């Protein structure tokens, strides 16, 4: 026998001495699996903290490492001489994880209760202290080399988190760099399956390192942070810090911004929130253009529209106070559109244009999926009705654009909006025709295709007078080519559909209005049965003769003479005076 067997638990800790002569503990694997299975997939740190407490209690009970009894607490410390089982190391790891999860829970609550930040720092320091204890225990010759390196990386990570919260950027950066270096070395030393976890940890640490570098004074780090924001790096709380950092950088630059020019009119910008938004508008649009996938692009569009709505709300509050001042003072120029109102129109224009671009991007994606064959028949795929809804929203946004205050007399702007409206009307009409094709309403679809061509030709004729009007719009020429092809396909499908009906035997065709209940024994092709008024039964039903009950009339009774019965009728005797009196007054009746 070469050595004792190695028993590995479901979470990766080795139970006995390994053949290389040391205890082992898969620290990163254990914490990652525990976090994913017990709440951190949904950001529930309280649930994970409860799991750490329960597991710690189970470990202490299993190892007989109890801290006194129910009446008295007796503290015990794990020493290097006690390391006969890797579960002693796991116990210290769970203590560190419990303190760290409590700190992260307090970090979430500190957004509304700032006083909890002090408790947060205390728990983070506690977690770092436990990790240092784990690292010191792993220095024992009983522990293998891999576990020692993982313990050092784990300690460096928690130390960096403490310094990061204390805003000690240089020390935090040194700790994170040490952690990153160890994990990169471990990733290069093991197989691909094991190295994935280490690389993921390195990706999680990278935004923190760049953030520290920026705060130290490296101005180039802001570009890396912006790139991480585009690729979706630094999720969770780090994403909030990235947004706050970008807003802070824009706020510093916004101090030099005093006015903005739009459609030939220069408007002073005195509201700080509007300055910050307008300063970052170009960066946001560039970020959307550089987005790698549709999900990232949609997220950026939503972020941009949320910022725009907040800015519009701030300008609207200023407009209310300006309206009150105008009411008090008799301003001769009260009929003109003020600078603040014009700024409000500009921001509304940005919001509506962003909404149009977002819906157009979604429609483009759905159109591509609509052309692809369905991979799963049971799963509902995109339908033309989905795109019709998107183009309805686009047309509604364009209608709001044409009513913006201050632009009623701008004929060029109104022509541009009307041209865009025609383009999106053509696309909406195209997908309505597609929905009619699916239900085999050929004539309606053909009429709608003709309407699409009419809109497209009108767009081409009007675009000649407006330079660069079709630059940001969908390609109308491509739509014309697609409609022409669809028309030929539609005509062929309509001919085939009518040809199939004409090939049916003439004796099977039903030309009369005989109800279905009267010809159940005969198979007939009756197209009216699937129409709006199928002839199933005759209604109202026809009258039918039925036998009635006979009536007897006694007509002979008037001509019959009955025999006299006087002899058989009893004669009543006379009762005297008493009977006579009773008869008069009715007493005898």
UniProtKB/TrEMBL annotation:
GO terms for biological process: SRP-dependent cotranslational protein targeting to membrane. InterPro entries: SRP68, SRP68-RBD, SRP68_N_sf. One of its GO terms (molecular function) is endoplasmic reticulum signal peptide binding. It comes from the Eukaryota. Keywords: Cytoplasm, Endoplasmic reticulum, Nucleus, Ribonucleoprotein, RNA-binding, Signal recognition particle. It holds the Pfam family SRP68. It is found in: Cytoplasm; Endoplasmic reticulum; Nucleus, Nucleolus. PANTHER family: SIGNAL RECOGNITION PARTICLE 68 KDA PROTEIN (PTHR12860), SIGNAL RECOGNITION PARTICLE SUBUNIT SRP68 (PTHR12860:SF0). Component of the signal recognition particle (SRP) complex, a ribonucleoprotein complex that mediates the cotranslational targeting of secretory and membrane proteins to the endoplasmic reticulum (ER). The SRP complex interacts with the signal sequence in nascent secretory and membrane proteins and directs them to the membrane of the ER. This is Signal recognition particle subunit SRP68. The gene is srp68.
């Amino acid at each position: 026998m070469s050595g004792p067997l190695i028993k590995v638990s479901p979470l990766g800790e080795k139970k006995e001495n390994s053949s290389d002569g040391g205890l082992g503990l898969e620290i990163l694997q254990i914490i990652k699996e525990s976090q994913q299975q017990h709440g951190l997939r949904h950001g529930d740190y309280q649930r994970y903290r409860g799991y750490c407490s329960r597991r710690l209690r189970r470990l202490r009970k299993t190892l007989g490492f109890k801290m006194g009894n129910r009446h008295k607490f007796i503290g015990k410390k794990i020493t290097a001489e006690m390391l006969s089982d890797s579960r002693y190391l796991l116990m210290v790891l769970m203590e560190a994880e419990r303190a760290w999860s409590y700190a992260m829970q307090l970090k979430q609550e500190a957004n509304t209760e700032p006083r909890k930040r002090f408790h947060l720092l205390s728990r983070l320091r506690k977690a770092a202290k436990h990790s240092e204890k784990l690292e010191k225990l792993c220095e024992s010759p009983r522990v293998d080399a891999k576990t020692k390196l993982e313990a050092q990386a784990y300690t460096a990570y928690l130390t960096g988190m403490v310094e990061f919260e204390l805003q000690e950027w240089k020390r935090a950066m040194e700790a994170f760099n040490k952690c990153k270096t160890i994990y990169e070395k471990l990733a290069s030393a093991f197989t691909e399956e094991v190295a994935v976890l280490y690389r993921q940890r390195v990706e999680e640490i990278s935004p923190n390192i760049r953030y520290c570098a920026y705060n130290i004074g490296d101005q180039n780090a802001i570009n890396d942070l912006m790139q991480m924001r585009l690729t979706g790096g630094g999720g969770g709380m780090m994403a909030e810090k990235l947004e706050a950092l970008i807003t802070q950088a824009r706020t510093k630059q916004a101090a030099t911004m005093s006015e903005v020019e739009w459609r030939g009119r220069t408007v002073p910008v005195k509201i700080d929130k509007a300055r910050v938004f307008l300063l970052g508008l170009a960066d946001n649009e560039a970020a959307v253009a550089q987005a790698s996938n549709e999900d990232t692009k949609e997220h950026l569009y939503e972020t941009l529209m949320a910022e725009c709505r907040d800015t519009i709300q701030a300008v609207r509050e200023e407009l209310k106070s300006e309206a009150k001042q105008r009411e008090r003072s008799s301003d001769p120029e009260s009929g003109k559109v003020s600078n603040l109102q014009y700024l409000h129109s500009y921001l509304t224009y940005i919001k509506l244009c962003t909404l149009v671009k977002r819906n157009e991007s979604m429609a483009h994606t759905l159109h591509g999926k609509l052309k692809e064959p369905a991979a799963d028949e049971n799963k509902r795929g995109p339908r033309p009705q989905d795109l019709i809804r998107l183009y309805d929203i686009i047309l509604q946004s364009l209608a709001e654009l044409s009513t913006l205050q201050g632009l009623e007399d701008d004929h060029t702007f109104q022509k541009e909006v009307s041209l865009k409206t025609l383009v999106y009307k053509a696309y909406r009409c195209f997908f309505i025709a597609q929905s009619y094709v699916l239900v085999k309403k050929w004539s309606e679809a053909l009429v709608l295709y003709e309407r699409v061509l009419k809109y497209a030709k009108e767009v081409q004729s009007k675009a000649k007078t407006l330079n660069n009007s079709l630059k940001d719009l969908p390609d109308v020429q491509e739509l014309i080519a697609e409609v022409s092809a669809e028309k030929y396909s539609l005509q062929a499908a309509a001919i085939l559909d009518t040809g199939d009906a004409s090939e049916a035997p003439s004796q099977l065709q039903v030309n009369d209005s005989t109800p279905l209940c009267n010809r159940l024994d005969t198979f007939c092709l009756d197209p009216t049965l699937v129409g709006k008024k199928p002839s199933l039964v005759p209604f109202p039903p026809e009258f039918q003769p039925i036998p009635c009950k006979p009536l007897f009339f006694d007509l002979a009774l008037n001509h019959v003479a009955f025999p006299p019965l006087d002899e058989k009728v009893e004669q009543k005797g006379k009762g005297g005076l008493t009977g006579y009196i009773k008869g008069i007054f009715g007493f005898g009746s």
